[in-house]
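Predict the assembly for these two chains.
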Amino acid sequence: MDNTGKILEEKIYDEFNVLKLREQFPILNQTVNGKPLIYLDNAATNQKPLSVINSISNYYETINSNVHRGLHTLSERATEAYEGSREKVREFINAKSTNEIVFVRGTTEGVNLVASTFGKVNVKEGDEIIVTEMEHHSNLVPWQNLCREKNAVLKYIPVNDEGELILDDLEKLITEKTKFISVVYISNTLGTINPIKKIIETAHRHNVPVMLDAAQAAPHLKIDVQDLDCDFLAFSGHKIYGPTGIGVLYAKEKFLEEMPPYQFGGEMIKSVSYEQTVYNDLPYKFEAGTPNISGAISLGAAIDFINSTGLEVIADQEKKLFDHAMKRMNEMGGIRFIGTAKEKASVISFLLEGIHPYDTGSILDNLGIAVRTGFHCTQPLIEQKYKLPGTVRASFAVYNTTEEIDIFAEGLKKVKQMLG
Amino acid sequence: MNKSIKELEEEIIEEFSLFDDWMGKYEYIIELGKNLPLIDPKFKTEEFKVKGCQSQVWLSSEMKDGKLFYYADSDAVITKGIISLLIRVLSGHKPGEISEADMNFINKIGLKEHLSPNRANGLTAMINYMKKYAAAYAEQNVN
């Protein structure tokens, strides 16, 4: 028997050394409440590698200048870097053209933009919009508000006890009044990876466009908007190792052409007279005002980080961490898991039996362990659907280690000992 | 003679100075939270709920012989433990005294993070309500 397997294993180990990777994340190297920080709140925001941090300071140190309008050298450099980043985003999600890539503040703004433009024009009294019961507030409240304004109806694809969508009902939910479907790709609370291709196919059979909230999907799996055939998609920079305040709205060009502008002012115009304005071409029509230039450029650096690390390597490491955590938590017993879908990302929502999530989170914080507690911006799901006071959520990123999971598991034992 | 708010605050600061680490402190708060039946179930309704994102708090108050008494509860034990400290300090005093209390003892015993708005546990809102009630009663008395 040869030792190919062993060599292969060593090769993978060589290729991905988590301790080496952690050197790129200075924030992880600190103590909190006297204990080494263990950051397991990655679904809320993940930490930034030096390349991203340096990209921000480098921008301000070398090329800071307003984009698109200046004819001087710095402005050209800034524009080149800004537009270069747009191309990186296009490639990252395999969009057809950079005309389809609009820089926004984040997923929330992406959804609001679509609700306020596409929604405003196309949704009328009595029409219907479909979302799911597991939406983040950011993909729920804008639609709720639009429906209230238009006297339209918001309908929900139901969720079962395991945290999976009950898709049998989708055909029944879609009627000739359905104007739009907006669905979360991966649930931030449950970790469920939704069967979005099936949803998109079903919707398209009825000529209904579909938007994806890809905030949690973008850091974990390869997104190919052409393969998915989604009509709209939004994600946030800060959840893919990039800075806060920058995100992306993807939309098929035909929709962007039809949609009215979201905001008005600089950058989004071609020409202005006292009487009227001609709007700019795509995607600039949707980028009013001086954009978040350094944010967009650093988002490009974050995409470079993901590409050089490898989305597959990231996914493998996260899977390893998830499996290890589930094993340790199952051994412990007395834990109720919220969200046990077959297809899951590296998010574990749970409750220690008989212990309030606030108490669990407070004790873990004292142990230097950062988790999230509460409704996770999915209050209807937690409160109305599952009738819970909240959950504790641990979510993993590529830089977490199995040793950290072990300390987390010991932390949970401590919580039980103190509060059980 | 009953202790003043200031004296009660000092007393609690003194008690907490005995703990040399966070664990002893939290174990004590958890005990307080577990042991105190703080509110009549009839007050555990929406009407008396001080909403928080992380934990829920219920609060009611009553005037007796010119003094204001509070009754409160929470679904989280640590929140409840901190509530019992707040009640120990404030309850049973004249509204005017309560509305003037600075509640700085929470900082001094090293629990200020539980009053951070970021925690959204209902405690900050609860203190505001407690003081608002006191101020309203104090005004009534003046009139």
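The domain at 52-308 of chain A is CATH 3.40.640.10 (Aspartate Aminotransferase; domain 2). The first helix of chain A runs from residue 4 to 15.
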